[in-house]
């Protein structure tokens, strides 16, 4: 290894970092090939341009020469103008320093010796500095090469650290922050009670649960996993149905004793009703299935709330009828605090879904959460349709 004089006797952090850096250097083959492809395309464009000019002169086309102009040299942006040269060159340079020769560096990178030599030569031309002293038998760093290597080394160590951190996120213990979103009532009743067990299983994952009844934007709001209810119309999401979403018309036993219960959809309009106001400001429609078709109804209501929990409490208090999700009312139905009606007309085209953006390159923490929460929600006894007479 061609280390500066001050480091040849002690390996130090640079030697360890470069030893680990071997896995990263394997990517240089593709980078170098892209660079040479870019050079080839540039040369080809230049050749075609010259050919076109010659053709225009050959057919006798007169071209008025432009008067000479003097302009200031544009400011050079090294990153924008020569990224591929610098990047491939630095990697080739580090490989030569680490391996001790151009031939062994080419072996490490999986490219030809001439490609390594060209990358280093282009880097030297860009820097206007000789980095290596080369003979047929040996290769050594110049003083400028030692200085350049010393300046590159911290960046190399940071790259190694970043690569290792990404590998740990994909293959190690799940960790990091996970942002979740759920509708307020579903998140409070179904999702939140399961988070303590998840955290006990994965203590290195930080959970951030956001409750709200308006869907958030996965990218703008940096959402990793969302729970959505109803019908999904966002085809860009990966959506897995957890359980069917049941909608049941319910009342308290006291209300049913005093006013009876509707036996048909049309009779709903004759009863006192409690409505849910949606985040859009509109009152939510009641949905039914009649003769295999979807039917909606918006009954007049004595009470309307923009919170599902308040709707439930009003029904428990005997205010009137309301159509609510099964996960809200199952426990109360089993305990006798509510009674259901019109189950034969309950819609069957809705669901509770767990959603995320893509199956590809899914972080380990996201996969761990999905695999943990899915069977546990499905195991909850939230399927109450069919347990009650029509």
Overview of the molecule:
The strands form five sheets. The protein has a five-stranded mixed sheet with strand order 4-3-5-14-6, covered by helices on one side. It folds into three domains: 5-54 and 79-171, Orthogonal Bundle (Arc Repressor Mutant, subunit A), CATH 1.10.10; 176-244 and 352-379, D-Maltodextrin-Binding Protein, domain 2, CATH 3.40.190; 247-349, 3-Layer(aba) Sandwich (D-Maltodextrin-Binding Protein, domain 2). It is an alpha/beta fold. The relative contact order is 0.11. Helix 3 (28-58) packs across helix 4, helix 5 crosses helix 6 and helix 8 packs across helix 12. The chain is built from twelve helices and 14 strands. The protein is 46% helix and 17% strand. The protein starts with 11 loop residues before the first helix and ends in an 11-residue tail after the last helix.
Overall morphology: rod-shaped
Can you give the helix content as a percent range?
40-55%
Computed Rg: 35 Å
| Annotated CATH topology of the largest domain | Arc Repressor Mutant, subunit A
Fourth CATH level, the homologous superfamily of the largest domain:
Winged helix-like DNA-binding domain superfamily/Winged helix DNA-binding domain
Termini separation comes to 83 Å
The top-level CATH class of the largest domain is: Mainly Alpha
Helical run tally: 12
The number of E-state strands comes to: 14
